[in-house]
Design a protein that fits this description.
heterodimer, A: alpha+beta, 60s Ribosomal Protein L30, Chain: A, 4-stranded mixed beta sheet, 4-stranded antiparallel beta sheet, 6 helices, 8 strands, 38% helix, 21% strand, globular, B: mainly alpha, Nucleotidyltransferase, domain 5, Helix Hairpins, Serum Albumin, Chain A, Domain 1, 5-stranded mixed beta sheet, 5 strands, flat, nucleus (chain A), RNA binding (chain A), eL8/uL1-like (chain A), Ribosomal_eL8/eL30/eS12/Gad45 (chain A)
């Protein structure tokens, strides 16, 4: 694989060892029916919030036809309203309120995600959990197509969520490895 | 030791007198006396002119130091002491550099921060879609206004000369003829060669002599001609706006303009709010943008979903046969999605991708419509694949909307269970009844034997 010709916009780019791991997991996801192939279907999984991570091919020509996927992956935000009650939630709400007044981003060990608290005008509030979807580039679209069991090259694919799947732990390890590339 | 200091106005070089204590920094006479000389001189020439051989240069950025060492053979150093030294220099910058004070430094810093932020966000200030959105809205308003005015002109002048509406079909030509002619009596002596063809002109002059409608007063005629001036003025404005929109679209979205034309492209951008938002949509959404009401109605009543929205007015879809419009619309939407992403994330003004995609689509259109006898089987296979693809595309939106319906169906299924149970009880009762009849018959036979 020629590293010199890779587009600098393809970031984060996996090295050869991590690429093999990613393609192997993509193939297993194909067998377990947990894979969406193609940039279009990957876009839909991000819009629906059922994507675990996104794999893209760095030798796509032109590369701009899949640069909207990192934008969508980083933009995924889950919002919900929390109802105040006299219980554990009440204590959590008080803590979040204090964090909001100090202007800091609260990282709660219970949720293991970044939580922001927005105090609304009608004395209620809205909690936003920011959970980015990891994305990674692999060097070859031909290899990605073979991993997806498709005869044609595949420029993007998305591994979807399934709580009861046997791939859960492998997916979590790979997500951690992908996020290490961004450091 | 020398110290390279970077400010928003340029570079500065200082000499360290006492390297042991790293104090008593002194000006080396490297002030920038005029902005002209500062702007022309680059870092390369600046360092070459001022650094002697064997000098050690302290830098704030180790990567920059590596580049300087590589290209100029000047030894660079970067450590905590250098950072402390630079912090001290920054706090006393206005004193060390003569002719520079805080009032001069603030606007230069502001300009530099704007340029840096724009570079980081990759925003080009000339790629602003607000003008396109407003232009396409204004174009629609001009269209409506022009229609209203031309209808009024035809109605008013029709009282005087009703045959003219049949002779001159075009609205703009009609307004020009009315403005030139005035009273229909003048038609016989005027020359319409600049506006109309010879046959139409002869027909007009013949009709003007045999028309038997009412006469028009001078005041009414003046009002009608002023209305014609309005019509021609609006038509001219509309033409200028179309040209301007074409130029803007070729600048902001060249690939999309090459594929679907500037009007349809502008409507797509206007519908989504910006090119950035449009680039994040899958092509199946782009295909039916502008037909949301029809889509939701079809999903609610479980009918066929629409095949096109705003994209119906693209030239490629319009010139296709009715049975092929759906296929061409789907292919065009897919290629348009790729073109939109190239326009949004690419920095160049290149429309090669759009032109190539358009050529492929035109070839496919010819292939669909010019069916040879030898290619009938291939066409049938292609049609089958397209039908399956259409079914797959239609299923996905339904799954999103039908989740509520599935819950209702689940409730209905739970309701149906007692019905099944009652049916089973009925069957059991019937069996019991048959058994009872058999027993009665058996006893009757026995009694007869006895």
């Amino acid at each position: 694989m020629t590293v010199e010709g890779v587009n600098p916009k393809a970031y984060p780019l996996a090295d050869s060892q991590l690429s093999i791991t990613i393609l192997d997991l993509v193939q297993q996801a194909t067998n377990y029916k947990q894979l969406k192939k193609g940039a279009n279907e990957a876009t839909k999984t991000l819009n629906r919030g059922i994507s675990e991570f996104i794999v893209m091919a760095a030798d796509t020509e032109p590369l701009e036809i899949l640069l909207h996927l990192p934008l969508l992956a980083e933009d995924k935000v889950f919002e919900f309203l929390l109802i105040v009650s006299l219980s554990y939630e009440s204590q959590l709400v008080v803590s979040l309120a204090l964090a909001s007044f100090t202007g800091f981003t609260w990282v709660s060990s219970s949720y293991d995600k970044k939580i922001r608290l927005y105090w609304l005008l009608d004395s209620s509030f809205e909690i936003v959990i920011v959970d980015n979807v990891p994305y990674v580039f692999v060097p070859s679209k031909q290899a990605l197509g073979r991993a997806c069991d498709v005869t044609r090259p595949v420029i993007a694919c998305s591994v979807t969520s399934n709580e009861a799947s046997q791939l859960k732990s492998q997916i979590q390890h790979l997500k951690d490895a992908i996020e290490k590339l961004l450091i | 030791m020398l110290v390279l200091f970077e400010t928003s106005g340029g570079f500065a070089l200082f000499k360290v007198l006492d390297e042991g204590k790293l104090s008593n920094v002194e000006d080396l006479g490297t002030e920038f006396y005029s902005a002209e000389s500062a702007r022309r001189m680059g870092l390369h020439k600046f360092l070459k002119n001022n650094c002697d051989d064997g000098e050690i240069l302290a830098v704030a950025d180790p990567k920059l130091g590596d580049i300087i060492t590589e290209k100029l053979d000047i030894e660079c150093v970067h450590n905590d002491a250098v950072m402390e030294l630079l912090r001290g220099v920054r706090s006393q910058l206005t004193e060390l550099l003569s002719g520079l004070d805080d009032n001069d430094l603030a606007p230069v810093s502001l300009e530099l921060s704007h340029i840096l932020a724009r570079y980081k966000l990759k925003i080009t200030s000339d790629k602003v879609e607000t003008m396109i959105i407003l232009s396409i809205s204004l174009l629609d308003d001009l269209d409506k206004e022009l229609n209203t005015y031309t209808t009024s002109v035809c109605e008013l002048y029709g009282l005087h000369f009703p045959e003219l509406a049949n002779i001159v079909q075009d609205n703009i030509l009609y307004a020009k003829v009315v403005k030139l002619m005035g009273n229909r009596i003048n038609a016989a002596t005027l020359d319409f060669s600049e506006i109309l063809a010879d046959e139409v002109e002869a027909e007009l002059k013949e009709a003007s002599m045999v028309s038997t409608r009412t006469e028009v007063s001078d005041l009414d005629l003046m009002h009608i001609q002023e209305l014609c001036d309005q019509v021609l003025s609006i038509a001219e404005d509309k033409t200028l706006l179309c040209d301007d929109l074409k130029n803007k679209m070729n600048k902001i979205a060249p690939n999309l303009t090459a594929l679907v034309g500037e009007l349809v492209g502008a409507r797509l951008i206007s519908h989504c709010g910006s090119l950035w938002n449009l680039s994040k949509l899958p092509w199946s959404t782009i295909q039916i943008l502008g037909a949301e009401k029809t889509l939701y109605k079809a999903l609610k009543t479980k009918q066929a979903t629409p095949k096109y929205g705003l994209i119906y007015h693209a030239p490629l879809v319009r010139q296709a046969a009715p049975e092929n419009k759906g296929k061409i619309a789907r292919s065009l939407a897919a290629k348009s999605a790729l073109a939109i992403r190239c326009d949004a994330f690419g920095n160049g003004q290149d429309n090669t991708m759009g032109v190539e995609s358009r050529l492929k689509l035109e070839a496919r259109l010819r292939n669909l419509e010019g069916g040879d006898l030898g290619a009938c089987e291939e066409e049938e296979e292609v049609n089958d694949k397209d039908t399956k693809k259409e079914a797959d595309d239609e299923e996905e939106p339904k799954t999103e909307e039908c989740s509520k319906k599935r819950k209702k169906e689940a409730e209905l299924e739970t309701v149906e269970d007692p019905a099944k149970k009652s049916k089973q009880e009925g069957v059991t009762g019937l069996l019991l009844l048959m058994l009872l009849i058999s027993l009665i018959y058996f006893f009757s036979v026995n009694q007869l034997l006895w």
